[in-house]
Specification:
With about 150 residues, this protein is an alpha+beta fold. The chain contains six helices and five strands, in the order αβαββαααβαβ. The chain folds into two domains: about 5-75, ATPase, substrate binding domain, subdomain 4 (Actin, Chain A, domain 4, Alpha-Beta Complex), CATH 3.90.640.10; about 75-150, 2-Layer Sandwich (Nucleotidyltransferase, domain 5). The protein has helices spanning about 5-20, 25-35, 70-75, 75-90, 95-105, 120-125, and strands spanning about 20-25, 50-55, 60-70, 105-110, 130.
Length: about 150
């Protein structure tokens, strides 16, 4: 299943278009994802914010809005859900010898999308295995913030 950074960018673009009538480009969407993107909503309900510029779809003129971490997490629900489902399917098809290694060492994520904030928590909760990425070797084991549990 091809779900990763590009799909996340598309989801952010689509969300901003639907909810704010603002057209942004792929570069802006990637910047949003890297700066305030998260796999689950922040504890305070809003989280970090970012000012973004795009074209107002109603008037056709440039416009600036403030986007918060909660909105970005909401926009990423679908791609994150697809990643979780793909991991679960892969685990179901994993040979027993490899399954033993996963139980011992956990899941290691790779790729740019794996750097999404709290993705390791969400995957850990969904699979019941520790989950880490090479950049952040700390693992999440049954330690998902309550806001990530849905």
């Amino acid at each position: 299943m091809r779900v990763g950074g590009d799909k996340m960018d598309e989801a952010i673009i689509s969300y901003i278009r639907r909810h704010h009538n603002l057209l942004i480009g792929e570069t802006t969407a990637e910047k949003i994802k890297k700066e305030i993107g998260a796999a689950c909503p922040p504890a305070d309900g809003i989280g970090k914010t970012i000012d973004i510029k795009g074209r107002d779809l109603m008037n056709g003129v440039p416009k600036e809005i403030t986007l918060n971490e909660y909105q970005v997490a909401e926009s990423l629900i679908e791609p994150v859900s697809q990643i979780i489902e793909a991991v679960k399917v892969a685990l179901e098809c994993t040979p027993p010898e490899l399954s033993a290694d996963i139980v011992d060492k956990g899941i290691v994520m790779s790729g740019g999308g794996s750097q999404l904030r709290n993705l390791n928590y969400v995957l850990s909760q969904a699979t019941d295995f520790p989950c880490s990425s090479p950049k952040n070797r700390s693992t999440a084991w049954r330690s998902a913030p309550a806001r990530c549990l849905k």
